[in-house]
Design brief:
alpha+beta; six-stranded mixed β-sheet; five-stranded antiparallel β-sheet; 12% helix; globular
């Protein structure tokens, strides 16, 4: 019996095909190249320059302005009166706002009186005048203000205070009996320097109003003046001034 040669030819054809498939399987570990195009995210911070846009202003820190100091009050006095240096600027004008109104004691014959906290100065109105006595002081009485005691121009009385009489300042006569002493003799209410203990005390920093007269009490002395004429005085243990 004769064998056909066809099967041998088929095996020869299949060997290259199988070999090609095997090689294709060995090279399949690599991924094929992606066909999708890579997308780029635009930079959100990058802005095109605008030539018409104004530049941002640069803020420069500024210092706080210094407060403007209040002007020092100046006195406006009637009749061309000039206050001495360091005297309160109110001491020639009207009665200051908030002044304490002094009232008369029941048996003082209408006199308005007060004393300082030190008991060294006491003041009172009397008829149409106003005066203050100081009991201990170190200054010398100004001779131009001393008044005759007995009508003789050469006989000048000593003084221990100042008086505003008819609008002008003069020294008080040491021989005068002040109203605060007259009221305490009979009642037995005399205190230091024979000052009536019932007198109101004008504390330091307070202002008194006594009819047309005003006084400012301070630790360095007492300032009083006539609010109509503007004339007045300052008195303390060591100094005085008049205008």
């Amino acid at each position: 019996m004769r064998l056909s040669s066809r099967p041998k030819t088929q095996w020869l054809i299949l060997i290259p095909v199988v070999a090609g498939l095997a090689l294709a399987g060995c090279g399949g570990s690599e991924d094929p190249p992606s066909t999708e195009a890579a997308t780029q995210t635009p930079d959100q911070t990058a802005q095109p320059a605008n030539p018409n846009r104004a530049p941002k202003p640069v803020l420069t820190p500024t210092a706080e302005p210094s407060p403007t100091p209040s002007p020092t009050p100046t006195a406006t006095c009637p009749g061309g009166i000039t206050l001495p240096d360091s005297i309160d600027a109110r001491a020639c004008g009207p009665i200051p706002t908030g002044a304490r109104v002094i009232t008369a004691l029941p048996d003082a014959w209408g006199s308005l009186m007060f004393r300082t906290p030190s008991w060294n100065i006491a003041c009172a109105t009397e008829y149409e005048s106003f005066g203050c006595m100081i009991y201990e002081y170190n200054y010398v009485d100004p001779p131009e203000l001393r008044v005759p005691c007995s009508g003789d121009p050469g006989d000048l009385c000593g003084s221990n205070g100042f008086r505003i009489d008819r609008g002008f300042v003069q020294l008080m006569d040491r021989s005068d009996i002040p109203p605060w002493s007259a009221t305490c003799w009979d009642l037995g209410t005399c205190g230091a320097n024979y000052i009536d203990t019932r007198l109101p005390v004008l504390e330091y920093g307070q202002v008194a109003a006594l009819e047309r007269y005003a006084c400012i009490s301070a630790e360095d002395g007492l300032t009083c003046w006539d609010t109509v004429t503007g004339h007045g005085f300052f008195v303390s243990r060591d100094a005085y001034a008049t205008w």
